[in-house]
Inverse folding.
């Protein structure tokens, strides 16, 4: 059984391992560097609107989702931009869906009407997952990033809350 709960300081080293271990230039426009850990941790614990972790029965963190407000203005306080990662060993076990369901419930409680997910075109597994969940593709940003000596497109998917 998987438990979804708010992230704590004690979870951050495992969340960092998931982030740095699962992400490569086909999945993220910025590879996190070891000297960025403190900023990463502070961002997820203190600046994000919400950060949730998924834990196994043994208490092992196996995935996380973090959401930030779309911008600094009051008019942007009803939309979140999300980041999601699940450890390779736990992929395909329903962890991503459980995290998204939990953050969707949290969004509804906070009067957030939309959660956006941005994904590189080369991350076909994430795109397939978002499509499987019925998310709406809202945008296709062509030539958004220069990675590994080539242009990468990016898509934006949205999950609408309360509709």
């Amino acid at each position: 059984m998987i438990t979804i709960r708010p992230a704590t300081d004690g979870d951050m080293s495992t969340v960092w391992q998931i982030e740095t271990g699962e992400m490569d230039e086909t999945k993220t426009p910025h590879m996190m560097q070891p000297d960025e850990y403190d900023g990463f941790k502070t961002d997820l614990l203190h600046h994000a609107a919400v950060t949730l972790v998924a834990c196994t029965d043994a208490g092992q963190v196996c995935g996380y989702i973090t959401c930030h407000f779309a911008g600094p203005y009051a008019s942007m306080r009803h939309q979140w931009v999300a980041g999601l990662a699940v450890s390779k060993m736990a992929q395909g076990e329903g962890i991503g869906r459980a995290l998204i369901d939990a953050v969707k419930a949290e969004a509804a409680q906070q009067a957030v009407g939309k959660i956006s997910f941005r994904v590189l075109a080369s991350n076909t597994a994430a795109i397939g997952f978002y499509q499987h969940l019925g998310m709406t593709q809202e945008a296709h940003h062509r030539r958004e990033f220069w990675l590994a000596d080539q242009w990468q497109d990016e898509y934006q998917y949205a999950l609408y809350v309360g509709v």
Remarks:
- Helices lie at 12-22, 37-47, 95-109, 124-132.
- The chain has four helices and seven strands.
- The first strand starts at residue 3 and ends at 6.
